[in-house]
Amino acid sequence: MKCNAGWYELNISAPDNRVTACCFYGGPTDQWLDERRDLDSYWNSSRFRELRQANIEQAPESGCTNCYFFRSNSPDVKSFSWLPQFGMPQIDETASPLQQANWRLAVQEFEANREILTAKPLRYYVNFGFACNLSCIQCHQVPRRKTNGRQVSSDVLYNWREHFKSALEVGVIGGEPFALAEALKFIRRFVEDDELKDVRLKIFTNGTLHHRHMEILRKKRKLSLIVSMDGIGDAYDHIRVGGKWSQVEENVLDFIEAGKRLNLEWDVAAWCGLMKTAIPKLPDLAKWHGRHNIPARFFEVISARGVEKAVADENVLANPLLVRQIPGWKDYFTEAASVYRRYNMEYLAGSMEYFRDRIEKRLQAVVFAEETLGASPKSNGWTTLFDQGVHQLATLSACLYGNVSQPPVVRQKRWWPRDQHLIFKPTHLNDHLASEFVDLPAGASGDLCVRMTWWWPSGFPESERCIVNFQDQSFAGKWEVDFERDLAGGVVQRHIILNEKSKQFRLMLCAPEMQQAVLPKRVKIEFRREAHVPVGRGREELLQIASAAN
Questions:
Q1: How many whole angstroms separate alpha carbon 118 and alpha carbon 94?
Q2: CA 53 – CA 500 distance, rounded (Å)
Q3: Mind spelling out the 3-state secondary structure of 46-102?
Q4: Which of 29, 181, 286, 428 gives a 20 to 30 Å CA spacing to 189?
Q5: Model pLDDT for residues 523-540, shown as the tens digit of each residue
Q6: 534: closest CA among 447, 459, 456?
Q7: DSSP assignment, residue 30?
Q8: Helical segments of 321-463, H only
Q9: What sign for the dihedral angle of Cα 454, 459, 460, 461?
């Protein structure tokens, strides 16, 4: 299936130093340069042409392969314009002649499989920077803010003003746009430019600051706020650290009321990460969306360096055992679906049912694996692939990105000479230790199951321990069936069922955020073949559900 993002969107991120067609593209991208450049130097670059060619040819291996967007989203994505099975976005009837002409040309070039385009982007999506007034528990930007203050220059971006005239929308995101100096400068300039009155401005915000800028915002006829809200009430306050639900609710409702009063084409939508803390609040959130006619999109939160532990404690899709902590968890999804249907929000009702069933299916697979693998005798059928103690772990390769003034791994002793442990001292958020890749066994039938066990030195709380991970040759670190449990005496055991694409593996150790961390005193990795274990819905089934819901 050909995705239209490469014919539709120009996606810019200064802090990530990339220019591509969407946030989820995993292939090589152009770098964002802080200098005035012709639009085509990005839009028709060799990287963009490669992306389009991969979609035209349906290349089995490309930056679009196993797209996170399709793996992690529910049927409600049909309401967002660039989902490929729904074609190119429909054009607003109030669009200018210039916008209509560019839209028609974009559709023609998409359908004709053009790699070099004459049409200009229909959407610009610009991440101005990571600065924000909140510190959300799941946000991958939070640990990177201290060392990455880069912002898109408003002046450089506004060099494309003539091209903006033919776009359907320009999106501004951060961080928090209202906490970013360059984003605010761009918003003011865009809003006051009468020649851009037909172009919708979309601001992706946490909803805590826009009320301070209403005098300037009311000058824009076509304006959208996309507000991040994973729950309401105390669930919101827990997740969005530094924010208050009462303030966000007041700000959003005042914005809606102002748009109506001024007869402007304003709207609000909600982006909702699906998190354990907010599940009991889903029915109330659905009532709030329905009562105020606010469409929403639910999605799986992304794990990234610096927030692995927080996301592991909240992501019920990747860690379905978490729902055991929520009595009657399925009822919350079912009730929320019923509420959405009462408000004729069928796509959100389908979203709730989809995620409920997906979690249940993955939970059943993990429970099956627990019973099948976890009950195995210590050595019954398991073959050791990797077994290293303190002396070997001390020699793991160190991948360091900061200034190295001392050894990254040091030995420390306590109480008596033989009680040694290792401390990893990172220089950068991306620093890690890794073993060499080892070939996985091939040829036998059945699923390849991995049992990974590690032993912690005594006396160290979880907050001071490193993150222990298993990666395959594509650097994947999470699988459909993937769970761990604490055993007695500071021992942790993780079970994984790999997919057929995994050919090699390595051990990877990293510190939580930028703090020193203790390493395990031993890590052992074993494998065995097991009868097929059912897993969650795949991408094709997801798309079939979405099509049926339409």
A1: 23
A2: 26
A3: HHHHHHHHHHHHCCCCCCCCCCHHHHHECHHHHHCCCCHHHCCCCCCCCCCHHHHHH
A4: 29
A5: 999 998 876 555 544 434
A6: 447
A7: B
A8: 329-342, 346-369, 390-393
A9: positive
* Domains of the chain, earliest start first: 75-93+120-366 (3.20.20.70), 383-530 (2.60.120)
How do strand 467-472 and strand 222-228 relate by DSSP bridges?
unpaired
Q: Compute the residue count for the chain.
A: 550
Q: What backbone torsions phi and psi does residue 279 show, to the nearest 5 degrees? A: -60, -45
Of all residues in the chain, the percent with pLDDT exceeding 90 is: 67
Dihedral class, residue 311 (left if φ above 0, else alpha if ψ from -120 to 50, else beta): alpha
Kindly report the backbone phi and psi dihedral angles of residue 482, in degrees, each rounded to the nearest multiple of 5, phi listed first.
Answer: -160, 110
Higher pLDDT, residue 62 or 392: 392
> Could you tell me which residues are beta bridge partners of residue 266?
223
Which uninterrupted H or E stretch holds 398? Answer: strand 397-399
What gap in Å lies between CA 219 and CA 223, rounded to an integer? 10
Full DSSP string of 475-543: -----SEEEEEEETTTEEEEEEE--TT--EEEEEEE-STTS-EEPPSEEEEEEEEES-------HHHHH
Asked whether residue 547 carries a pLDDT value surpassing 60, the answer given is no
Question: In angstroms, what CA-CA distances link 372 with 22, 117, 375, 376, 459?
Answer: 40, 54, 6, 7, 32
Residues 6 or more apart from 407 whose CB is under 8 A from it? 425
Gap between the Cα atoms of 383 and 529, Å rounded:
10
| Helix residue ranges, H only, 214-316 | 214-217, 234-239, 245-261, 282-291, 308-312
Q: Is 467 exposed, middle or buried (0-12, 13-18, 19+ CB in 10 A)?
A: middle
Instruction: Say if CB 200 and CB 167 are below 8 A apart.
Output: no
> For residue 451, what are its two tokens?
């049992």
Strand order in the sheet with 265-274: 18-20, 9-13, 123-127, 169-173, 200-205, 222-228, 265-274, 296-300
Neighbours of 28 (CB within 10 A): 12
d(CA 126, CA 105): 23
330 or 458: which leads in pLDDT = 330
Question: Position of tokens 């699988």?
Answer: 479
Whether the CB-CB separation of 539 and 70 falls below 8 Å is answered with yes
Which residues are 439's β-sheet partners? 504
Give mean pLDDT, residues 112-139: 96
CB 11, CB 131: distance < 8 Å: no
Using an 8 Å Cβ cutoff, are 350 and 549 in contact?
A: yes
CA pair distance 130, 141, nearest whole angstrom: 6
